[in-house]
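A note from the maintainers: we've had questions about how concatenated examples are separated. There is no special marker in the raw files; a new sequence line simply starts the next protein. For clarity in this README we add a label.
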Amino acid sequence: MEEIIFTTGNSGSVSSFQSREQSSLSQSNAVGPNAMVRLPNGSLLVAQSNKALINVYNLNGSNMKRESIHQRLPIPEKIISMNIVKHLNDSTIELPYLLLCGTNSGTLYIWELSSGCLLQAKQMAHYQGIIKIDSMDHGRYIITGGKDGRIIIWDTVELVSGNEDIKPLIILHDHTLPITDFVLSKTYGDYLSSSGSKLITSSQDSTIRCYSLNKTQTGQLKGQLICTFSNTKPIKTMVLDHADRCLYYGTNDGVFSLPLFYRIDKQTIIDILGTNNTGTSKGKIFTLIKESNDTTRSKLYSMSQILIESIYGTGIELIELSMDGSILIIGGSEGTVSILEIYSKQIIRNIQSIINVSDSSSDANNGVNNLMVQVVEPNAIKVGETHHTNTQRDWKIPTLQRAVYDRKGAHDVWVQLNDRPNPEEQTFEKYMDEIADQSKVFTQLGSVISEVKVTGSEDSTDTSTTPVTAAEIVQLKANLKSLTEAYGELRNMHEQLFQEHQTLLDQNNASK
């Protein structure tokens, strides 16, 4: 079951994707996009805009506990972006490994959530504010995007090791105005590895750029610009299809779809994000157009023009995709979340915040500034029901320290593990039920007819009706007799050789 979590400048709501259940988040004043993250244990962290504070909500509890603040985490300064790095080896640990936070001054904070230790406070990581943080390759690399128009990729080990002189691995500075969003490809690169993954960035300079992140022979990460898409309006938000088939982006004119596998004609489909074959470091450059009077798409593509399709009208702030990629969740500028079917472009449902604050100072506070869609267990969003125990619901995050950890001596690490469910006892009846379910795959349904054609069956039926002469019968008997005699000779030779072999084995055993 999917769950939609969204916030505005003065409210927050948690709604079920498949049902009408909804609850509000009290005292939620989210600072802006990318300032909300959900932990594996069901806790929701929301950075506040009016103070240096992170509100923690327990989304696994009853309706009363979901709405109230479960915990408050003071931090050194106000943050505008936040993300986590999960544990790689043990998925049963509910608290993630690292909490990443970016500030408006360009400082990057990294806490160890299980202890609360501040591992890194990288000042001037960006010249201006850090608007988004993400990780790739199972947390090995950290990616930050800032208002200074740069995308920086860091080595996670170097950031948490306590080194004073930390240098980024890659700096991408092709954009000329502040970064607005970036997304990572969800498919693997060459040879089913993370090398070759795509990084797509957007900016207020009305361009979308795609980079290929490859590893050199020495294991270092290298970024190469593949292509640039030029748009008429600045890009506000993006979301990538789960199979990297299409890129959806939003501007002041609405939401548009950019097919990454572009069909030129009925027989030709081009991978736009393929290898850079231009021979230059700038890659290919395309212009995005809504419609054209030209004859064919191939002619437009020869002029480096790509047709895009309008999905939704104006007044959008953020967009997200459903689990199957067929539903688009749109956060509007009026505080409404619209659920839209991509194929038909029809709105299925509109979700509004339960709490409407009428004394807001400006209309800008009413827009959706955080939007998240995640898959949860059905019991996790039912009012009054939960699959966690009381001790797990009362679990709290350690206090986040303000001073950087000096790494002298040991420190406490608080870890809570989930109870592993006991495997069900396997019986013969359950085994037969599984076999019956598997046999349904081979069951013929409806008008589907499955036939197995035996080669040579028609020839055999034809020869059976043909009369056989006496000479042919004599010839067949002679052939059968000769084959029988030859088989008898081979059998006698085999028996003689076996006896000789047995005699040699007996002699060898006697000599030993």
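[label: protein 2]
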Amino acid sequence: MAPLSALLIFFTHHRVAANLLMVLMILSGVWGLSKLNTQFFPTFELDAATVRVVWSGASAEDVESSIVTPVERELRNLNGLKNITSTAATGLAAITLEFDAGTDMGMALDEVNERMAQIRNLPTTAEKPEVTRVVRYEQIARLLVASDAKLDELRPLVYQFKEELLQRGIARIDIHGLPKEEIAIQIPALRLQELGLSLEQIAAKIGQQSRDLPAGLVGKDDVARQLRSLGQQRSAEGFMALPLQSDAQGGLLTVGDVAEIARRPREDQRYYFSAGRAVVELTLQRTATA
């Protein structure tokens, strides 16, 4: 008797066994479905890397001539390099390197780091170049945080949600609808005349005292780490305490003595609303390998 015929005869006389087998198949399918990795696009990685150099206080023209040009000159003949795109902005240089498809990005990043280490004429006050691989992120969910309260009251709650989600394994979270803030320093024109200073001069004094500066390296070769002196002020109170100049009585005038300083949302920001209430959107993303 053929094995298939014997199996059919067995299940014909043992209906409970047939039902148990069916239930087992259904449960196995449900379990497999729960483990299925679903995504909108197929998994692929980008053969690209970026070089980022921060040079606080430098103009875009200085960044281009002192950082972008020598870096491009050193990297333009990398093995497998397909295209190089550079951006020079105030205080920042960003160079994007696109490699041929199938390039071993581990070896490519090692070569980029070696070439960057050979550049000796970068500005001494610039930060150590950061070389990273371009990572593709895929959106997996969108969360809306709504409240009848003001956005300023919603801000700490949104950042708390973001931190908790990152700790749970979410690779990246973008926040939309929560305006970025700036610290505004306003000085009346009459006060400027009394001080005998212009806005440009005061801005220069503040800039000289409020910035992060390199303080050397610790370690050698691959384990070397750059030390920085953190002088950049990030609060209204910090700017208020910055010394400006001596007064007629020999005392010290601070920025807070002559200016109104406040943290406020930047202009031209995008806001989100739902049913008349302000909302903040959190976009949750994962990497291609997650």
